């Protein structure tokens, strides 16, 4: 078909008109180029504990990230502490409820692997603990608890020497963090030839019998390293408690944690040394990573967070001050 | 020839524009509203201060209730608890955020009971029911909408019950109270926030009831400790220094301040001073058990939280309230209190 | 060379295209010029406006921070000058006054405390205790305050650690301290008045202030410590970076900086007394029209206006060139020879004028052509006439001589014959001016001639005239036969001595009229034959009419067309026959 000049002109004109209309739509309406409607990402944070006492700063960081990145963060705690099956149920439930990414503080990471293998889990998971290399999560924001344990072990040795038995306290069934922490401490202690003993405070929540027994046995000046925050708090409370006799029982009380009560105990002297982490940053980065995952970014990152050992004086150090007492 | 070309183009253009409008309309059509049965509810909770022990107790009870509800019904409860840090301004923006996040119901412990109107406005506009608790907004504000509720402990009852404790104690062991045996029980008063009506009412009714029941009390001094343990502790310490050996009874508007007084007493090494509080928080109950407090008026926090959660969940699910709940004027619920005394 | 090419290239396009192109290009240039300059202007205007607004906002915030700090400083003043100075602390307590002032300022005061020089807590509102085991005396700020008596000393934000506080909470405060004189009884001593400002209240002033879309402000102390930042915790934790080092060096004013790949507009304003700096940051992208949508819109606008202009242009150029085209078409038709075509008149008055002129010219050409034709015809006619007038008068004279001789010789009867013949001859010669006469008359004409010539030549020859009756009324050309007979006589009969015979015959064959003039005379050679048809007779020939054979031929052909004319057949010594071919036309003379 011969296209005459007139026809050519007509086609050209039509094409031009179409381009004009498209340009108009693109520039003045929302049809083609949508004004970035900041999408709200639904993220769920599932921890292994039944309350959030240890997560106060973490939650502050979480909230900040939620505000900045337009995320709807749902903080889920278990009904029962360290119940793996429950946790996995929670994970699936959150996925059902529309979470686009999950930040998980796993009770047992192997369970997570099983879920992933079975193909039940479709949304990205960010682990706060256990590096990504070991498990098939999308990303991880972790602290090296073993390193922390080593650090504490070294400090204990520095202060107390190798002569004393170091009591390792734990409340109930511990989680992977405790295990790693313990491993670190044990490693350093055993290298130096220092004795370590384990006591589970499960049935003795306020450590009455622990201290009583020790006192009876005439053991002076215990060196206690608590593997988790609950036992540390219990020990510190007991030491701060009404009976002055207990006050001097412990030569040194060590542990890890960042809650305000523990910091107060550190300040008041019940706790000798404390291993701390920047929970605010942990919370912030976890949610940020989760939002990145939810937004569809490709394979994620493994973020390793620092840990520090502090004593009383360090509380006034502006850097630690800001870290441990986040400004809200 | 040119004219027909132009006409054709005009027609084409018109057609194109019509098509575009149709497209715009279609795309702008709202998505289908999902009216399925709710599988999760979202509750926004704002506490006037995060460090108030009583409030914290209620909070943990509420969380517990939420968890058991979840387990029972399988409906996810998204409990978003925020601390207003004593600023009404912050609380207002928290309410704004709750509403924008799509909370189904709000649970607010207002910072300034006189200034609840902006929160109520926001809730009314968004049609989100509100359950106030512990600090009661003024009646005019509460009457603005029928989806506003209030849970609280009756301060008058608290005062009377507190007086009852002292009265009983006096009747049973007068010498424990009247340490110096002068026939008069000298007391100091630790009061809550001056703007909190509970503080006023509790104080008023406690003292009045004691007087009415013929307990010979005499006030040495009093002070406002703003519900806080540390402030109470500091005040008590000052008084112990100022009136050594004179103080026989400490009447406190709440348990936290009572504990603070007990702290000061312990520190100063004074003994025998009777302390009575109100609230029945865990630490308070423990103090009663230990014997450092003679008694406290305990509100049934489990009940408190249960009722509160029942209202919250019903409202969130869009159901009618439990008919068994007896609400004053359809809005107010007074939590029952019991006396917890030393054995 | 180039110029020629250029002209040639441009000239290849029609007016329409040329106007179109010129118009479009100039429109496009104009639009682009306007668009770009407007955009640039708007852009800079907008930037300037936004900058001004941001600065105004910053000034506003500065003022509120200033007033906030001043309020607190005034509180400190009231506490000191209004209360402490006038009180004797050994005798009275300032608690009530403190409580009153605290109550008024509860929103932003966390604690008010009066400390003695040794760090003893003299008064605190709300009631508070110093942390046990805590020595205030050794705190650097305490010493600094005591050393600089005249100053109010502001700290940077820190966690409140002086007083015993709740187990679960911590407070961020900014401490304002001053040295005071405490009166106890008769002695006065130094002390420190401490006011802890809640950080939250300052934060409230500065929170949620955005400069434009993505701009923000933050506050630092004079040596770069962050006092407030919308993402303070993150900056402190290292999760975010802020250009703090540069900020320290800035004095009040505006700066452009490039930080982490982003161009930013920075405004710095100092807060009075404390030396704190309020820094407002606006990213460049924020304050210009650099939106993709805006750019697209401008492109759209340009394209749209261009489109409209092109349409208008097309319409206008069509209106102008349309009539020209029509005119051109008419001219084309005219060129092709159709002078009758309708010349279209339209368009602007110049074109109309052209059209009209062309139309008139065409008409004139037509008229002129017709004139020429007419002229041509009349010229022909006159030529014709001229030719005809070449009828020789000599023949007349000779014949008259003969008549006179005859009369003198008493040959009256012959003279009468000759006179009559002559009269008849001339009458037909003239034929009232007509060129076309009936064959009858032409034959008569030649008979008379022959008769006269016979008498002259004393019967040297004889003649015959035969004609079919039907041809008699047909048209013939005048003075046609006579010259041929004349020719036959003078070239053929000279040497015949009475045997000469001239035959004239007229007959019709088909649609043609034929005449034959035969003689049996000398005949002619071929050269003579051809020369007969080409040679012009000398004008004044003595023998006859003076019209030669050539002329007859020419006339016949002139009059009747090229198809007709003379044909000569001749054989030397045998004779000559001249054939005249005419169309058989009945007797109506075509008007000339």
Give a description of the structure.
The complex is a heterotrimer of chains A (328), B (343) and C (592). Chain A has 328 residues and is α/β, with parallel strands linked by helices. Chain A is built from twelve helices and twelve strands. In chain A, the strands form two sheets. Chain A has a six-stranded parallel β-sheet, with helices on both faces. Chain A has a six-stranded mixed β-sheet with strand order 7-6-8-9-10-12, sandwiched between helices. In chain A, helix 6 links the parallel strand 6 and strand 7. The mean pLDDT of chain A is 81. In chain B, the strands form two sheets. Chain B has a six-stranded parallel β-sheet with strand order 2-1-3-4-5-11, with helices on both faces. Chain B has a six-stranded mixed β-sheet with strand order 7-6-8-9-10-12, with helices on both faces. Chain C has 592 residues and is of the alpha+beta class. In chain C, 49% of the residues lie in helices and 20% in strands. In chain C, the strands form four sheets. In chain C, strands 1, 2, 3, 4, 5 and 6 form a six-stranded antiparallel β-sheet that branches. In chain C, strands 8-7-11-10-9 form a five-stranded antiparallel β-sheet. The longest helix of chain C has 70 residues. The model of chain C has no long low-confidence stretch (mean pLDDT 82).
